[in-house]
């Protein structure tokens, strides 16, 4: 497995990480046995970066990963965990809490659910508008000093917040959406990361399956949040699937899948970018891993740019209320 380094001060990790959110709902039902088998297959393939959030399935995802990794040598994998999102018993989203005392409480429960002594990269899921980022990062830094956390990461924050956070403690990576049809980070956030020596762990590299080559309009199952996502709505999804068809033409000329081209494109954007693939099955994982062997030539990249121009996607990546909460959207 090829390796990439997380920032100036972070660990070396596999060039592709496994995002585990979809194994605990969000995209509809997920098979528990297949999820665990997929995690094991990822380990066997050399993937050593596993990403989760303590609010995925209200703790279900952490317990699932803990079960899958039980008995695996702790120094052979990296756990990346997001925290801070509050949820109700009905699954509703209530806001964020990144106060220093909350940081330490979230972490205590995470360690218990995962069954580990430390987290490799710990990060607030979003910027808490009520808490200065310096206080949140300072609290995580306390946990680094105490040995419960190895490195600090951030998620979906903008350039100003990155600078303020990095002034308190080294930040190894920014987790943020980045794909052929979500390229907003290129203007300000990505250059700031590179200036500060912060890597990017890119989620949504297939835009939640939209550019995976298999999405069909009206496909969302019960419990699948894509049913309400702007890019999947009638009037938008047709335009977006037309982009996928154009991308498929490029993939066909190389004899690879659309998903492989889309992931390979993200990989090609720099050695400081690590795509997180959200494979829920072993078949999906095999397809994603093959992207590591897809070499994109300058002609390929030009053809991809023609097929999916920057800004060509219809609809925002989240609903309006959620977009308004993203510090990253402020540049």
What does this structure look like?
The protein is of the alpha/beta class and 331 residues long. The chain has one domain (3-330): NADP-dependent oxidoreductase domain (TIM Barrel). 37% of the residues lie in helices and 17% in strands. It has an eight-stranded parallel β-barrel with strand order 3-4-5-8-9-10-11-12, surrounded by five helices. Strands 1-2 form a two-stranded antiparallel sheet.
Compact overview of the structure:
GO terms for molecular function: oxidoreductase activity. About 35% of the residues lie in helices and about 15% in strands. The chain is an alpha/beta fold and about 325 residues long.
Rounded mean pLDDT is: 92
Count of strand segments = 12
Helix content: 25-40%
Strand content: 15-25%
Tell me what the CATH architecture is: Alpha-Beta Barrel
The count of domains is: 1
Q: Write down the CATH topology.
A: TIM Barrel
Q: Helix- and strand-based class?
A: alpha/beta
CATH homologous superfamily identity = NADP-dependent oxidoreductase domain
Distance between the termini: 34 Å
CATH class: Alpha Beta
Largest sheet: 8 strands, parallel, barrel
Low-pLDDT regions: none
What strand line-up does the widest sheet have? Answer: 3-4-5-8-9-10-11-12
Shape category = globular
Rounded radius of gyration (Å): 19 Å
H/E topology pattern: EEEHEHEEEHEHEHEHEHHEHHH
Number of helices: 11
Protein name: Aldo/keto reductase
Domain NADP-dependent oxidoreductase: 15-306
Organism: Parasphingopyxis marina
Keywords: Oxidoreductase
């Amino acid at each position: 497995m090829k390796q990439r380094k997380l920032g100036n001060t972070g660990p070396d990790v596999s060039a592709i990480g496994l995002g585990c959110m979809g194994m605990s709902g969000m995209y509809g039902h997920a098979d528990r046995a297949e999820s665990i088998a997929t995690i094991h297959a990822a380990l066997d393939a050399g993937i050593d970066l596993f990403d989760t959030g303590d609010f995925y399935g209200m703790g279900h995802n952490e317990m699932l990963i803990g079960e899958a990794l039980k008995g695996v040598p702790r120094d052979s994998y990296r756990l990346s965990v997001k925290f801070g999102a509050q949820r109700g018993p009905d699954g509703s989203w209530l806001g964020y809490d990144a106060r220093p005392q909350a940081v330490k409480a979230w972490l205590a429960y995470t360690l218990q659910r995962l069954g580990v002594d430390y987290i490799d990269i710990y990060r607030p899921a979003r910027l808490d508008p009520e808490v200065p980022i310096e206080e949140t990062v300072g609290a995580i830094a306390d946990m680094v000093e105490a040995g419960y956390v190895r490195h600090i990461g951030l998620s979906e924050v903008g350039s100003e917040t990155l600078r303020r956070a990095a002034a308190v403690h080294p930040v190894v990576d920014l987790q943020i959406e980045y794909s052929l049809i979500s390229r907003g980070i290129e203007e300000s956030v990505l250059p700031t990361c590179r200036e500060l020596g912060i890597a990017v762990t890119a989620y949504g590299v297939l835009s939640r399956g939209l550019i995976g080559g298999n999405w069909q309009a009206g496909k969302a199952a019960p419990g699948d949040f894509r049913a309400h996502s702007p890019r999947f709505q009638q009037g938008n999804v047709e335009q977006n699937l037309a982009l996928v068809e154009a991308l498929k033409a490029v993939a066909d000329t190389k004899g690879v899948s659309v998903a492989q081209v889309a992931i390979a494109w993200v990989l090609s954007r720099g050695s400081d970018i690590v795509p997180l693939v959200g494979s829920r099955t072993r078949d999906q994982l095999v397809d994603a891993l093959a992207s590591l062997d897809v070499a994109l030539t300058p002609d390929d990249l030009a053809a991809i740019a023609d097929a999916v121009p920057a800004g060509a996607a219809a609809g925002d990546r989240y609903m309006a209320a959620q977009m308004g909460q993203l510090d990253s959207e402020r540049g």
